[in-house]
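Please fill in the sequence for the structure shown.

STRUCTURE ENCODING:
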């Protein structure tokens, strides 16, 4: 955790990354959330708070459904809400998204803990970062630096919380989106538009830390300009071909 906090502290994020944990043990070092919020609103609160944990009673919208805390609400899965909001043309289009939405198994989680990373007392299941494009480029490059692994940018027009929280946690795949693309978060005006919202699952964190410590954050090609970069690539090709 200390290494995680140190490395990501170097980015100087405008708002702190948020550590999230799904657990069945009540987080004794955190306070209970004293209000009802949507799942996506909890992320915003955690960026500004000392940390808290939420139970089923604290969630509004579809958060409890995605967390496996409640049964499905038929009116949503019938596809009747989206067309009335202007998100989908008709119910059949709205219904289709429910084959994609990731969800936790029923009754698998009792508490969800949130805390700014630099104050977090727990080892996070997810690290969620609101980044500028330049910061996101470094993180995404670090994701691929030692493995060549491709990026994920999965989502649907609604239920952004499924892709921010549940998808990376269930799959082990880092995911990202651009703020302003999700209907609900845009309607709630949670974040400035055009930022990159990145979700990192726990099993990707050690790899990212290692790569961020090893790789150049600002490669020479970003500094020497287009002509300098082209010349460098040409020189590298000539050296490689000449060495065959």
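FILLED IN BY: designer on duty
SEQUENCE:
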């Amino acid at each position: 955790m200390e290494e995680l906090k140190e490395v990501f502290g170097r980015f100087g994020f405008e708002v702190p990354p948020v550590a999230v944990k799904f657990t069945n043990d009540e987080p004794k070092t955190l306070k209970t959330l004293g209000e009802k919020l949507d799942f996506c609103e909890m992320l915003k609160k955690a960026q500004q708070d000392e940390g808290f944990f939420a139970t089923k009673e604290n969630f509004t919208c579809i958060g409890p459904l995605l967390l496996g805390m409640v049964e499905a609400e038929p009116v949503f899965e019938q596809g009747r809400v989206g067309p009335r909001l202007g998100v989908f043309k008709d119910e059949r289009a709205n219904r289709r998204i429910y084959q994609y939405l990731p969800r936790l198994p029923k009754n698998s989680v009792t508490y969800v803990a949130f805390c700014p990373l630099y104050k977090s007392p727990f080892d996070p299941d997810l690290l969620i970062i609101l980044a500028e494009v330049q910061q996101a480029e470094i993180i995404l490059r670090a994701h691929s630096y030692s493995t060549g692994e491709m990026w994920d940018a999965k989502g649907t027009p609604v239920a952004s919380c499924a892709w921010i929280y549940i998808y990376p946690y269930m799959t082990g795949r880092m995911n990202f989106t651009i703020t302003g693309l999700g209907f609900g978060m845009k309607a709630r005006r949670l974040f400035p538009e055009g930022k990159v919202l990145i979700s990192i699952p726990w099993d990707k964190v050690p790899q990212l830390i290692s790569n961020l410590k090893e790789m150049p954050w600002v490669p020479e090609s970003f500094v020497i300009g287009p002509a300098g970069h082209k010349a460098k690539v040409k020189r590298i090709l000539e050296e490689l071909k000449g060495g065959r």
